[in-house]
Amino acid sequence: MKVVSAEQRLFAFYLVPDFTMLAFSSAVEALRLANAVLGYEAYSWRVVSSDGQKIRASCGLTLEADNSVLIERQHLNTRLRPAVSVICGGKHIERCADRAADAWLRECRNRGVAVAGLCTGAHILARAGLLDDRKCAIHWENQPAFIERFSGANVSTGIYEVDANIYTCAGGSASFDMMLHMIGRDFGEGVVSGICEIALVDRVRDPGERQRLPFAKRVGVQDPTVMKLVEKMEKSLTDPMQVEELTASIGLSRRQIERLFRNELRCSPARYYLKLRLERARLLLVQTTLPVVEVAIACGFVSASHFSKCYRETFGCSPQEMRGRSMKTPASRPAACASAA
């Protein structure tokens, strides 16, 4: 492990099983490049795993750990205490529980150590009780399950969030943007510009930039009226509105709206709305253990039977069958992770 000088800002990266390599490497590379631009080691880092043993990424690569969570807790009382403790999440985050890590994170906050979550790292921060009434970001694919489980957190659609010395980002390349924000706060925009030049990054994204375009834009919708209505639909999946309510402020007749949707999306507004709700339901089925009836309610269906019928017609299987398939998906769960559940 590197010897840390008093002038360095130390980052402790806690890697969970199946962590996302892109999110982790993007964060570390931002710190490495900051050192290169500054001409000295302003930042240092170490890798932490639950038990101090090797940890496997979702891509199959394995990294050596410098410390265990137990040793990290001990370091909070020494000069080796980090400036920031970063949780690197990834696949199957809901399957990995570690009470020792939760306690460590709470102690970090109590001792003034900033905490951060990459990719699905916000899930672990929320489980430790650190995101109640806090703004946070998590990967869009995990948002439905996260919102259902941690209703006290204020989840954004942006690429990263900063709230009271708690940093969270959606993962992927957004880790780089969030780290540049930290580096810019420490050393100014000149250093950030130098990092971007070396990394061939053309711009630094703002935290509020959406993780992905609304679906209507992704499939090439051009009509602004259709785009506006789809955005309204995406914001009201739990409590669906009638088509008449959605179109009340548009100033067009229902027949005109129907024609626009068929031209742009090859389906009616009602059918498209149903597709959005069913996609949310699919994510909840594969990411949570919510009963099917609760998934149905969370996606605006009045009954489990109607939900199951619509689901089968769209995906070719029942909600129960979809969940059964997802549970058979292999997940790396080292004993150190599962033992504390």
Strand and helix layout:
Blueprint: E1 9-15, H1 21-38, E2 43-49, E3 55-56, E4 62-63, E5 67-68, H2 69-75, E6 84-88, H3 99-110, E7 114-118, H4 121-127, E8 135-136, H5 143-149, E9 154-155, E10 160-163, E11 166-169, H6 174-187, H7 189-199, H8 215-218, H9 224-234, H10 243-246, H11 254-265, H12 269-287, H13 292-298, H14 304-315, H15 319-327, H16 335-338
Parallel strand pairs: 1-2, 1-6, 2-5, 6-7, 7-11, 8-9
Antiparallel strand pairs: 3-4, 10-11
Helix pairs in contact: 1-6, 1-7, 2-3, 6-7, 12-15
Features of the shown structure:
341 residues; alpha/beta; Rossmann fold; Arc Repressor Mutant, subunit A; seven-stranded mixed beta sheet; two-stranded antiparallel ribbon; 16 helices; 46% helix; 12% strand; globular; disordered N terminus; DNA-binding
